[in-house]
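Why do we bother with holo predictions? Because pocket geometry can differ from the apo form. Keep that in mind while you read this record for KG4.
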Amino acid sequence: MASKSAKYVLAFDTSNEVIALGVGSLCPSDKSIEVIYSSSTPALRQSNTQLIPQIDAVFADLGISREDIACVCVGRGPGSFTGVRIAMATAKGIASALDASLIGISTQNAIAQEVKAAGFTGRLLVASDAMRKEVYPAMFEISNAAAKRLTSDKVVKVAEFLEKQAPDNELLVTGDALLKYYDGLSNLGEVLSEDLWVPTGRGLLFELQSLWQNDEVDPFDTTANDPVGMLPIYTRLSDAEEAERRKLSAPGERNLVTGVQGNKATGVITEDMAPKGSYEQDAISYRPLDVKFVDDVAAMEASFLGSDAWSASMIKDDLGRPDRTWWMATLDGSLIGYAGARICDDATELLKIVVAPEFRRNGIANALLEKVAYDAFNLASEKMMLEVRASNEEAQAFYCNAGFKAVGDRPKYYSDGEDAKIFSISLPFGLVDEIGDVHESVLSKEALSIAHPLILAVESSCDETAAAIVDGNGRILSNVVSSQIDFHARFGGVVPEIASRKHVEAIVGVARLALEDASKHLSCDLDYSDLDAIGVTYAPGLVGALVVGVAFAKGAAWAANIPLIAVNHLEGHLYANRLVVSCDTNDACDFVESDTEVELPAIVSLVSGGNTMLVCMHDWHDYELLGETIDDAVGEAFDKVAKAMGFPYPGGPQISRLAKQGNPAAIDFPRALMHSGDYRFSLSGLKTAVISYIAKERESGNVLNLSDICASFQQAVIDVQIDKARTAILEVGAKTFCLGGGVAANEELRHAYEQMCESIGVKVIMPPIFACGDNAAMIALVALDRYNQGKFAPLDQDAFAHADLSEPY
Ligand code: KG4
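The structure, written out:
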């Protein structure tokens, strides 16, 4: 916790290929900041490893205690997405652990402040590299009094920018885009020296001071500057979203299966499954507006909007523009609502939100509004505005409810002479409370005495942001999982860039919830200062996603002055076998560490969306990889087969549900490498066989027997898994068999293992269903063991896409 007399600000930025670092002393009487340290050091791809060690060294040198940090100030970009996220996640960790304020500032404003501090005045162009032959150009007017920003955040093609920008001898030119486009940019004006191309600690601190003096922020206000709501400036959607927009605004066949579907697996797919008459919220699909629905939109416009209605050609024309975002809501493939907005520099104009009358008051308009607002925010808008007819009280009430404020009138705005009321809201909104679909363990009410060490564990390797707290007795005091599945579903798989963005949004809230839940359990008020260590998944997984958890955990561990513990995600899945549920439901449960001993050696099968392997466990922490898949993972095969049948991602659970009603012997799918005499697996042949079977049946006009296909596919998977596991158990002389990974939730697979193990007299231990998928409780258990062995991670701990379980770490 920050001390009562805390008065320092720690500022940093890693948006570019440098680490800018500053420490300042806050002087409330005149709102000034005394710069006591400033640096800017090259850190080519190294900011994740070097940021915290640098901060640590600076604080040691200055003799300042970390509890004296009242405010963390972070550069929000624009810049390298991963770079910005490293600073942001680290800052969130530090501010959370110290209960300090977190203030985000524009990296480009910080550069302009450094230019001003270096004594320059006049017009300044800061051109930052945006990759993909694009730049982020920002114009400033620098005077002795201020570095005034003239243009808002945007990203433009270099060639286009150079063409439009007239050369001007008086213009000062800086920014790291000069590294790539020196020739073109240097024609525009006078290029400043290279040390002014990137942010510095001093620049960050001066920008904060300027905001403070203009009463835009108060560095001591921890409520207004809660780290939970701070987000990077991206200015672009992810590549996957951009590609999707391009595809959807071009003509082609309607594709009704790829929307963001609710979690209800039956809420989609085939016409005969579609609900008739009534519907469930989960069955409504939200996705960017597809050009094939333009006539439907025009029809709704004509029905409900009278003289304000847009024609199909107006909508079509609008849809193809890069500065627009349009979303639609469909039910059973029919349009039931849509929303559109025009992104115009820092303000976005909401053009439409229309929901068919019979579907109103169901939260559909709100959901559409949130989708459009989220895009607008990611495309660098700071607020969203709209006009409503003065007489339309229902719409006005809706916007007020959503948090919009009436900010003025436009007399006689409409063609029939009616006035418009203008409403506005700051972006982002709706994000802070919404941290995905959260599962929390329901813990028993009884108060426990605190058994140290108390460890917070963080998991962010794929598409779940998770945090858990374990005590010294191996009791899981809280377990929070925020799933992003809904955001990835319409892409048919996890989109790494979206996963990373969502982790940054969720991580503070998820960790906070874990502390709150543990507090309830202990009947006390826990905060970071009560923790003894922070554990975090460092590998394997999506590296951009892992980086967020690792940077957050390092920031928090450094600020709380407690050790960091790095955990291998796969070892976590293995440790999930040590969790048992102390209540009788599987989806809301109270975990404790199991008393059942894993007798050694043990054979462990790890089967998830990313891994399929057989491991011999000689001891905890002593694993031997016997073999793994040479192509697809089991979960991946389930998901791809499910996709071919039209099920939304992730389709594994849906396949296992349908398989229950099917005949596993109906279709003879291949069992690859079943008799290969080793422990390699191959699933891509099986996947292709199922997909071709489906295509052939469709071609022949046969009605697909989905249940039989699912059951036969699943059986082919199970047969190979069981056969290889049995061989391994016998060869090694294993006493126990354990399972782990998302696919371990498959009931038929579990049942088959139970039968096989019983037949050869081997003990079988499997994780509770809820602990099969990614969660932080399993990471916490590994962290506890590592804590007890003194295996701590250094402050330069990095995240890695791959890590071999056989290698001790
Ligand atoms: O371990 P996990 O949560 O994370 C990743 O590795 O991404 O595993 C998720 C995988 C997905 O492929 C999902 O379809 C699969 O586990 N899965 C299942 C079942 N439940 C989840 N596969 C088959 N049957 C299930 N019941």
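Residues 462, 608-610, 635, 638-639, 650, 652-653, 656, 741-743, 745-746, 773-774 surround KG4 (CB under 6 Å).
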